[in-house]
Amino acid sequence: MAPAKHGAFDLSSALDQRHAQQRYRQRATQQIACGREAVVDGKKYLNFCSNDYLGLANHPDVAAAFAQASADFGVGSGASHLVCGHSHYHHQLEEQLADFCQTERALLFSTGYMANFGIITALLDKQDAVFEDRLNHASLIDGGLASGARFRRYLHADASSLQEQLKISTARRKLVVTDGIFSMDGDVAPLKDLMSLCEKHDAWLMVDDAHGFGVVGEQGRGVASLVTPAERPQIIVGTLGKAFGTFGAFVAGSEALIETLIQFSRSYIYTTALPPAVAAASLKSLEILRAADDRREHLRQLVSKFREGAQQIGLQLMPSESPIQPIVIGGDGDALALSHSLKDSGFLISAIRPPTVPEGSARLRVTLSAAHSLADVDALLVALSRAHAAKK
Length: 392
Known about the structure:
Layout: H1 11-20, E1 37-40, E2 43-47, H2 60-73, H3 81-85, H4 88-101, E3 105-109, H5 112-123, E4 129-133, H6 138-146, E5 150-154, H7 159-166, E6 174-179, H8 191-200, E7 204-208, E8 235-239, E9 249-253, H9 255-264, H10 266-269, H11 276-290, H12 293-313, E10 324-330, H13 332-344, E11 347-348, E12 351-352, E13 362-367, H14 374-391
Parallel strand pairs: 2-11, 4-5, 4-6, 6-7, 7-8
Antiparallel strand pairs: 1-2, 3-9, 8-9, 10-13, 12-13
Helix pairs in contact: 2-11, 4-11, 5-6, 7-8, 12-14
């Protein structure tokens, strides 16, 4: 293999620097299905870093729907949606998602990243402006930058900061973009305040609710369902790979929005459609998710138990009532060392470090699932208490 160092393409120095900063990322190869437990390198762990919030990724009915559809339709879709890859499973799922979100239409994308990127770049150009929360997901930031629109970032969840920027904007179109539940902090965007500002300044609001769907709201309809219909955003984005337990993403909104994306969103037009079997599995998952009040209630109990116990230990939590429960450590090395210590005790929890989170805010990102038991949380708290005491 040719050496990594070669003139302008000196790749080794950047890799060496990331190693030195203790920010080098490595993949853990899973050896069993996604669930409460994980097996890595032959060792079993309690898994507290999955986004499978309702425990549906390995649900037998979802797996059976996938198996039946793959037997009927094969494995691949064979083409993009606009050529011949749009199956009746895809179409039915879009109709069901629109009903779920209480919007006129919904549109499937192959990934959440492609959805966010494709929506923003289809709607905006250099005549326009995009206003993004400072803690937005990378896909939202990248979409805003790639659109060519004037790119502005407001202070996290701060409506007054956004207002100062909106009131001086002279852009043709103004799009405010936010996560619904923020993926690294776990807090909820102030949708009511943001929507009020958008109405006042003739702007649209786009909410990426990847971590809210299935978890919050009536039937798990997400953060947009927590406000009145008049206060709901014009663009709602969700992913299927988290609480739904499958794969892919969707955008929900008006007839005009969806038709615009079908005609102009490059990440929709120029990519192969999801396998039909994935859409069939997602249909079954959506059916289960809507009726999963028991799972959501159990998840709330787990979150409450974890927060109460972590605070008693003296750990620094963030203001999150969601299944995302970050423990702020600060230093990159300290966060990594705690992650390794917990792994030695049988718990899989990722250390999240810059550039994913701001400098000085490295953390353990504990994520809870309805697949966990109260005893699992107790066991984690015991391990955290021991590690915290050892650090002192």
